[in-house]
Amino acid sequence: MVDCDLATLQTREPKALRNLVNKHLFVKDAIMQGVTEAIKALHTRGWAHNNIRPEHVLVTLNRPYQQPPGVNTYWPVLTSYKACAPFGRPVEFIDSDGIPKRLTSDMSDYEGLELVGACVERILMNLWYR
């Protein structure tokens, strides 16, 4: 089991990464589907996460629900909800670099999803091609 964020996995040396993560279970589609489902769950309730990035996505082998029998893949858990806000509401927060940010809620969720996807691609390249 790995409970680690994507940004940390991305920084691992390829050999250490392969020792930590079973490349056959690290499936991009499962990770991206899980993050997308988390975003949709928030959006259907009228809320936006506003701070989706690789360091806020944990991966784990223990998916607590909806696991089909015999299916084992790493599954994402979206964290860091301090920037959540109702749609259309201006949001002000200080990011991890200490920089104040202001944005309209829900604008950045799918941009954040693209960042997560790029990070997963880099991890997969380290797992398979080095």
From TrEMBL:
Source superkingdom: Eukaryota
Name of the protein this chain belongs to: Protein kinase domain-containing protein
Xref: InterPro entries: Kinase-like_dom_sf
